[in-house]
Amino acid sequence: MERIIFHIDVNSAYLSWSALEKLHNGSDVDLRTIPAIIGGDMAKRHGVVLAKSIPARAYGVVTGEPIVNALRKCPGLMLEPPDHKLYSRRSRELMTLLSDFSPDLEQVSVDECYMDYTPIRRQYSSPEEAAHMIKDRVRQELGFTVNVGISDRKVLAKMASDFRKPDLVHTLYASEIRHKLWPLPVSSLFMCGHSSVETLRKLEILTIGDLACADRSVISAHLKSHGVLLWEYANGIDDSGVVVEQAEAKGIGNSTTLSQDAADRETAHRVLLSLAESVAGRLRRSGQSASMVSTEIKYNTFKKVSHQTTLLSPTSQTDIIYQTACCLFDEIWDGTPIRLLGIRSSKLTAEGEPVQLSLFDLPVPAQNGPAEASLYAGRPASRRKEQLDQALDAIRSRYGADAVVRGSLLSGRSAPAQKAKKEQPEGDG
Fold first, then answer.
1. How far apart are CA 4 and CA 57, in angstroms?
2. Which of 98, 171, 333, 342 measures 20 to 30 Å from 134, CA to CA?
3. What is the Cα–Cα distance from 126 to 131, expressed in whole angstroms?
4. 249 Cβ contact list (under 8 Å, min separation 6)
5. Both ends of the chain: CA-CA distance in Å?
6. Residue ranges in 143-264 assigned as alpha helix (H)
7. Measured between alpha carbons, how far is 21 from 39 in angstroms, rounded to an integer?
8. Cα-flanking dihedrals φ and ψ of residue 424, to 5°?
9. Residues forming the active site
10. Cα–Cα distance between 29 and 21 in angstroms, integer?
């Protein structure tokens, strides 16, 4: 299965976030529409440019240059000091929104992150569709813009997001580097700084394509290990994946913004099944079980509702989490078209910890008659379900997330709701 990675980068983050804050506080000037920069001290006029507007860029102002140089290029330049508390808040808002699409995020700075698209690929018709949904939702709900780069290599996704801006989606797959990447100047290559550019220029290596086709040993002789890294990047060689921070979890959940609003129960249940597989799989990988499950709905009116219940005993089984989520959904859905669905598990316990078993976790005694046995009818055979989940986890770990797919996700049919209601006892809501 081909891995797909997004790189999401806020367009001129500091300036955009400061501009929005000033507008919110009553300013009638949008810093994004005039020659403006973030950085330094307005009174003393020292420091460096941290971010610039598009009109400022037209004057030749560049990020990282001294403010005195920027003022020479554009005497009417407006300076705004940085507000790092504001930027941290805006960054958290962005990451929270992005986690609605996929929990597999690697934040690399306050304004950029990588997202592993591979686990959510079945929810969208194409990576481009998902990327456009991400950037459009950021613009509509948060008020600023992002670029999204798409690739099968992490470094190429980063490079793609740096193509023409703002508010755009670009692809740069390994198969596209010859015509999209190689004609660019070598200074455009990620991690290729001024010193490296000068060394390569002396070797008559001017474009990324020149570097890609150069003798690796020659590059290594002049730039050591960093030169080898640049040569690999120029050739699209990068095996690194999205590194998701593994913090001790108080809860594990997943949610998804739908490509089209869901207007019927069957479609919603099918999405919940996909989410339940993700949540249960993450519980098992972290060696934990959940005692509480909640279902979240965001309608196309942006109204949010949620409901939760306590399970009879902790679980990491896909079927139990799915059936519980469906019951909760059926209790709270009012028929309004659905924009987002989510499942969250909480009250986690580590595997191996002693837990209180429920009556229905016990095996059916052989001597029981029909009346007693009926208590257990319709309850999952707990051990067999656990073994099945473990077998599926092993297959997917070895052959990829799409190696085994439930028939209901392929056929468009979800599990019967009545079965879900029978198999999950009522909780405390």
1. 32
2. 333
3. 9
4. 286, 288, 348
5. 40
6. 154-161, 177-180, 194-202, 208-213, 216-234
7. 16
8. -115, 120
9. 112
10. 11
Smallest CA-to-CA distance from 34 within 11, 10, 60, 52 is with 52
pTM score: 0.66
Cis peptide preceding 166, ω within 30 of 0? yes
The per-residue pLDDT for 150 is 98
Q: How far is CA 89 from CA 106, 244, 249, 250, in A?
A: 17, 20, 21, 21
Burial of 171 (0-12, 13-18, 19+ CB in 10 A): buried
Supply the DSSP string of 24-66, one letter for each residue: HTT-S--GGGSSEEE-SBTTTTBSB--EE-HHHHHTT--TTSB
pLDDT averaged over consecutive 10-residue blocks of the chain (429 residues)?
A: 91 96 95 92 71 95 91 93 94 92 90 93 92 96 97 97 95 97 96 94 97 97 95 96 68 84 93 91 87 92 87 89 94 92 90 56 46 40 62 61 56 39 33
User: Dihedrals φ, ψ of 285, to 5°?
Assistant: -65, -30
